[in-house]
């Protein structure tokens, strides 16, 4: 499960950076988006673990 999280976290990071470049965002905004997606992913994994 940790490996899945690590892979998805990396995908979110690179996806947010790519999206940010296409939309003309500052890099900080892309990292904030990736952090939000990581937080959501952690919550989903905690819920799945508790079930």
Structure characteristics:
51 residues; 2 helices; 90% helix; elongated
Summarize the structure.
This protein has 51 residues and is mainly α. 90% of the residues lie in helices and 0% in strands.
Question: Could you tell me the mean pLDDT?
Answer: 87
- The helix count comes to 2
CA-CA gap between termini? 14 Å
From N to C, what is the helix and strand string? HH
Per the principal axes of the C-alpha atoms, what is the gross shape? elongated
Strand composition percent: under 5%
Let me know the largest β-sheet.
none
Structural class: mainly alpha
- Helical proportion? over 70%
Give a structural overview.
By secondary structure, this protein is mainly alpha-helical. The chain has one domain. It is 90% helix and 0% strand. It is built from two helices and no strands. It has helices spanning 2-23, 27-50. It is elongated and about 40 Å long. The model has no long low-confidence stretch (mean pLDDT 87).
């Amino acid at each position: 499960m940790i490996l899945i999280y690590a892979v998805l976290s990396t995908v979110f990071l690179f996806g947010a950076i790519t999206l940010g470049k296409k939309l003309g965002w500052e890099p900080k905004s892309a990292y904030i988006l990736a952090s939000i997606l990581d937080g959501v992913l952690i919550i989903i994994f905690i819920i799945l673990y508790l079930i």
